[in-house]
Amino acid sequence: MLRYAGLLLLAGLSSVQAETLFSTLPNGMKVLIKEDARAPVAAVRLWYKVGSVDEHEGKTGLSHALEHMMFKGTDSVPEGEFSRRVAALGGDDNAYTNRTETVYTTNIAVKNLDEVLKMEADRMVNLNFSDKAFDNEMDVIREERRMRTDDSPAGKMWETLNIKMWDKPFNKAPVIGYMNDLHTLKADDLRAWYKQWYAPNNAMLVIVGDVKAKETTDKVGRLFGGIPARPLPQRNDEAERTADAREVNETVYAVTAQPIITLNWRVPHAEKISDGMPYALEMLGLVLDGTDSSRYSRKLQRGDAVALDTSAGYTDFGRKNAIFSVFAMPNGQTTPEELKKRLLDEIRDIAENGVGKDELALIRTPVETRRIFARDSIRSQADTLGELEHNGFGWKSEDEIVRRLFKVTPEQVQSAARLLLDSPMAQITVLPQQAEQPQPPAAAKGRLKKVKP
């Protein structure tokens, strides 16, 4: 349910704008309908612009917990009935929460679209869960946190990174919430969060499929248009300057057979579509590890076999921040510090010697191939259109984003590599937990204490 989206995610397809209708209802709800008649199905996505960066100390995990509770029923659609009805109609549904958004997804035969829209409109305004349902679901969420974070080497790594890398509490906090907060949240906290943020003027509905855009827009207006807009709370100022970044070198211990290392830098956020450095950083990530022919895959995994796994890339972090991350798992014969040197050597080589046009051309081919395959999926289309609009680029901008990405020059990639080397780096290393080592201390209320070996 947790995810990040970088520029490449936003470059998933090419739309035929004549078949797409975007509108805003009088109550402020955005509606985006795209016609795709290749199969009698529809992908429905309902975005709410609320995530963990909107939360406060002591109340972390509200957005994610409310996502769970949205399936606990209304007076007309009892607990669990939403998903049961969707399944009975041959569809599937899910949801996810990240730092900036909570999204509800349904894929359904187009003949049953009306039923899904009615249920979505109903739970936008009529959610009614019991204290018992809340208590039961919080047990599920706490177990999810144990599985995804406390008992997960990668989960512990990313949580420690955010705590050490950022200054503001809502940037440090995990989307799922700190465990102590998950024990102290009350049902009324979620009810209040629902009333604050689940309003049509904080929502966007995207539908892609075998529909008529105008007819479907009118239908959405009839179902959602009567829900009144509400004043929204003032949002947290989440922006953190890249100039305030600091060096971090932290080690955590976990139950794992293999060490893990991640290197991270605060980098410029893509405020608008014309910002150049995010595209250069995105292309740098592709050069390092975006395809099978990229440097980390070719040299460190298949070539010298010093790494079992690698990844690198640019990603948004909230609405106002961004990071460039490198992740790697050394093989049994290579130490984390030795692998770190090899990872940085490749970045340094690009910074000093640049990349060739042929290398960039080789990277572009699989990226374009992925775009072609994405066009065949109405699910990918719905996700991409929604992400573009949600992130402020505008739903029409997908081709422009790809055009700018593919126009990145070797000199720009070289500048991006130099930017990393000239910036403070946050390193987190995960080492196997030894039997003689004490377990890391428990988290203080609302915060994770410093993890020491």
What does this structure look like?
- With 453 residues, the chain is of the alpha+beta class.
- The protein has two domains: 216 residues, Cytochrome Bc1 Complex, Chain A, domain 1 (2-Layer Sandwich); 191 residues, Metalloenzyme, LuxS/M16 peptidase-like (Cytochrome Bc1 Complex, Chain A, domain 1, 2-Layer Sandwich).
- 41% of the residues lie in helices and 18% in strands.
- Strands 1-2-6-3-5-4 form a six-stranded mixed sheet, sandwiched between helices. A five-stranded mixed sheet has the order 7-11-8-10-9, with helices on both faces.
- Strand 1 and strand 2 form a beta hairpin.
Show the helix and strand layout.
Layout: E1 20-24, E2 30-35, E3 41-48, H1 62-69, H2 81-88, E4 92-97, E5 102-109, H3 113-125, H4 131-150, H5 153-165, H6 169-172, H7 179-184, H8 187-197, E6 203-209, H9 213-224, E7 248-254, E8 260-267, H10 277-289, H11 295-303, E9 307-317, E10 321-330, H12 336-353, H13 357-374, H14 378-390, H15 398-406, H16 410-421, E11 426-432
Parallel strand pairs: 2-6, 7-11
Antiparallel strand pairs: 1-2, 3-5, 3-6, 4-5, 8-10, 8-11, 9-10
Helix pairs in contact: 1-8, 3-9, 10-16, 12-16
Please tell me how large the radius of gyration is.
Answer: 23 Å
Spatial ordering of strands, largest sheet: 1-2-6-3-5-4
The amount of helix comes to 40-55%
Can you identify the CATH class of the largest domain?
Alpha Beta
Coarse shape: globular
Looking at the overall shape, the CATH architecture of the largest domain is 2-Layer Sandwich
Tell me how many strands there are: 11
Give the integer mean of the pLDDT values.
Answer: 91
User: Which structural class is indicated by helix and strand composition?
Assistant: alpha+beta
**Tally of individual domains:** 2
